[in-house]
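Pilot study result, target chain (88 residues):
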Amino acid sequence: MALLRDSSQREELKEQYDRLWIEFQHMEDRKVGALLNEVEYKLLSRKEKLFDMLQPFRTHTIWVIPVSVISVMVTLYTLFIWAALWVE
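Predicted structure:
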């Protein structure tokens, strides 16, 4: 697989790029932005894509939910056992 600058299809691809750019001029900016973001994402390496997918988990607030659920479940279980022993 050759780089674009060394490719024999360079001129054809350049013409296709120019046609797309002309078509982009007649489209909504949000749609063009979404298309360009999609292409830019596809150009990322696997490592960069993985880092991008894991980005939401790098915040501290996302861990509050599972920790809260676990602590509530442990507390409810403890209260249930305590109440059962107290009633008995």
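One observation from the pilot: Residues 64-87 form the longest helix (24 residues). A full batch analysis is planned for the follow-on phase.
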